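Let's practice the habit of predicting before peeking. Look at the sequence and jot down your guess about where helices and strands might fall. Then scroll down.
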Amino acid sequence: AFVHIQKKKISFKVTTKDERGNECRGGEKVLAVLCPVTAGVPLRGKATDKRDGTYEVHFKSVPSLECMLSVTIGGHHVVGSPIEVKVAKPLNIQKMNEIQK
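Done guessing? Here is the structure:
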C-alpha cells in the first residue's frame, strides 16, 4: 500500500521499458486513475510524456481516504498496478510536542 499525506499533491514518475529491459522512448498513452474504494468519482491524473521513456504523473488531490491507483500504458497495467492508496492526516508537530511534555 502507498500512504499519502492529506492536503498534498501526488506526483510520481513512470519509467517505461520493453520486455528486454531497454528503456522505451515514449509516445505511448499513459493513464493514471485514483478510484475511491467505497464511493465517489474516480479522479484522472495528468501524465506528461518527457520523451525519454519517462512520464511524470500528477494528481491535484485525492478523492477519498482509501483509493486504488491504476496506471496503464497503451491500455496495459504497469507492474504493481493497481495499488492501494491510503490517505493519512498530516502530523501536528506542535501538538505532539505538547503531549510529550
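How did you do? The longest strand covers residues 66-73.
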